[in-house]
Amino acid sequence: MHSRHRSDTRPVPRTTDRLADNNSILVKNDEKTNGVGVLIVFLAFLSYYVSGSLLLPYGAGPDYTAHYDGADFIYQHGHLAVLPEDEEKLHFTVYGSTRTLRPPLSYLTAAIIAHALDWSGIDRRFLFRFGSALLCALTVSVIFCGTRRYFQNTWYATCAALLVGLLPQFTFIASHLNDDSAAIFSVSLLIYCLIRLVTNRPGRGIALLTGLAFGLVILSKFTAWLFLPFAGIALAFFARSQKPPFTSLILLFLLGLFAGGGWWLVFNVYHYGWADPLLFNISAQLAEQHQRLQPSDIRGFGAEGVTLLGLIIGNYQSFVGESLISAIGNLDWLRLKLGAPQYALYMSVVGTALVYFLLRLIVTGWRLIWATGDDSGRRLAFETILTGAIVFQFIMYARYNLTSEIQVQGKYLLPILFCPLLLFFSAVKAIERSCRMRFWWPLVTFGDPLRGIRVALVPWLSVAVIALVHIDALARFVVPFYRPPAQAIRVGGFNAVDLSNTAMVKRVENLSLKVTPAGWSITTQTDDAQILFKPKLCKIFSTNNIVKIGLESDHNGTLQLFWDSAGQFVARETVRSVTADIRTGENSLVMAAGIGQCGWIRLDPSNQAGKSLLLKSFSVAQLAINPKPFEFSH
Questions:
Q1: Do 60 and 332 form a contact (C-beta atoms < 8 A)?
Q2: Whole-angstrom distance, CA of residue 146 vs CA of residue 195
Q3: Cα 499–chain centre separation
Q4: Distance, CA of 265 to CA of 277 (rounded, Å)
Q5: Helix, strand, coil percentages in the chain from 3-state DSSP, rounded to 5
Q6: Buried b vs exposed e over 222-254: b needs ≥16 C-beta within 10 Å?
């Protein structure tokens, strides 16, 4: 007896088709959930940053006169400044620069928000800060969306949003008017667009958004421009896998580019000519007219004989460490350092990101292929571009400190903040995929298994750690700095500097000094007159002091006392100063000076050239400040 096998002619659905259908449903559901999550993230951080904007004192951050002037001109006149027509209406810094010649995204945002909220009665200086708060809240939201899309993991996105949103330096930037907020936002938005390009085929909407992001980078800040070459490489690399036609996508990209920042270039060409679309020439011309600093006062590490390798690899004067510390949080004009938990958390993120990339490059570099649909190869290429952007940003930052001016301020590294975050969570994902972690990870839970309640421990623990580290920074450092507790003060006797000779003087610059029976007769030659004292003057100083100066002046001006443990007196963490106004006639000045570790003292008797002063007395009283219960050491 023969058996017959009937062939089933009904079509069998392919597994890939079923998975695609299921994935499309999941993506739609995820997008709805993701939209609610983004809104929550945005509103939460916007509220936090606006609160900080209202609470932190004016002048505590980078929104002093120059940034205020950039936003206020647009607010008052309703247009961008055109020079030299508007020159008399502007504020120029000691470098001879004006913020109105910088990319105006942050100032436009601040002016628009201030106009919209005029009815509130809030001081305009604080209303302008809301622009940075908005841009930074948008940044956190964009990073949440980008991380969620790249890893398809809401916990990664939540932790990324918290790491950025609660980064002390970022929080400080969000609470003050500055252009760093615009730089970080625009680059983060551009990276999000590149993530969309890496993870799926983009449509017309993402083409328009990518062009807009490119334009906003142009409109934000010079430090953000450093990412543009890498964004261009990524765009060219990953667009190769897209199917034609490209015409509509290119047109939409160009439209977005013009709307985002291209119009500003056209505006500049119209007013300043084809040779100056980025305003470098007009800025240099105005700097020559308005600069109040001597060229010798603006110097980089190169003036000390340091090379770029010596600065970075040799870590000259702890350059790398201090840069990372200030990028994480060295606030209020580099006067407010934080603690070990804050620096350890974020340095571990950066370190893990870089180590991960190096290890992955070693293991899988040879598998790199050109955009053939292999997701692993595409992601490795994308991560290579991100790492290149990090390295390039740091090298250019170091080069500026080497050749132009010493400004050890890590905030200039923050535009590419999203890059190390993506690498860090790629490392976390790689660890999760390891055989050992796949075995242990499901067991790291809490809840009641008998009732079917199992909650993953690690994500909640990660969120708690990030939040607690930020709360610790607020409680132990930020709040006591701006709202110090009641303390007891005891003042010692005054010790006078002997003005019958110049034994305490190391050298003088830009002034003539003569010893007279009444004191030191000083004639300033420039507006940067300086008296540098020998280190032995520190013997009469303690950590905190009261400085009393008696002088007779023939003009109104400003006296400034500097102290620097390194003795270089350039804009960096070791330099502190106190100022006092002087008036024509007799002056008795009393100033508080928190010297800390005393190294060198410098007195700038006046900021006016060709003026005369008679320094009659210079005395110092040591000051003891003790918290409750007001106990003093004897």
A1: yes
A2: 7
A3: 45
A4: 5
A5: 55, 15, 25
A6: ebbbbbeebbeebbebbbeeeeeeeeebeebbb
Mind listing the pLDDT tens digit for each residue in 571-604?
A: 554 567 888 999 999 999 999 887 777 788 999 9
Burial-class residue 617 by CB neighbours within 10 Å (0-12, 13-18, 19+): middle
CATH homologous superfamily, domain 490-627: Galactose-binding lectin (2.60.120.430)
Paired tokens of 17: 């088709």
Q: 475: Cβ–Cβ under 8 A, 6 or more apart, which residues? A: none
User: Nearest-CA neighbor of 554 among 522, 511, 518, 584?
Assistant: 584
Strands 530-533 and 505-509, by their bridges, are antiparallel
The rounded distance, in Å, linking the Cα atoms of 476 and 168 is: 13
| Residue 271, burial from CB neighbour count under 10 angstroms (0-12, 13-18, 19+) | middle
Span(s) in the chain for CATH 2.60.120.430? 490-627
Task: Give the Cα separation of 464 and 198 in Å (integer).
Answer: 31
Helix (H), strand (E) at residue 51? helix 15-55
Provide mean pLDDT across the span 311-318: 92
Cis previous bond, 449, omega within 30? no
- What is the Cα 583 distance to its own chain's centre? 38
**First-to-last C-alpha distance (Å) of the chain:** 114
What is the spatial distance between Cα 437 and Cα 269, in angstroms, rounded to a whole number?
58
Q: How high is the mean pLDDT of the chain?
A: 86
**All residues at 6 or more sequence positions from 65 whose CB lies less than 8 Å from its CB, including other chains:** 91
The pLDDT tens digits for 357-391 are 988 887 765 554 444 445 567 888 899 999 999 99
- Exposure of 190 by Cβ count < 10 A (0-12 exposed, 13-18 middle, 19+ buried)? buried
Please give the radius of gyration of the chain, using alpha carbons only, rounded to the nearest integer: 29
pLDDT tens readout for residues 12-61: 444 444 433 444 444 445 555 568 889 999 999 999 999 999 999 887 77
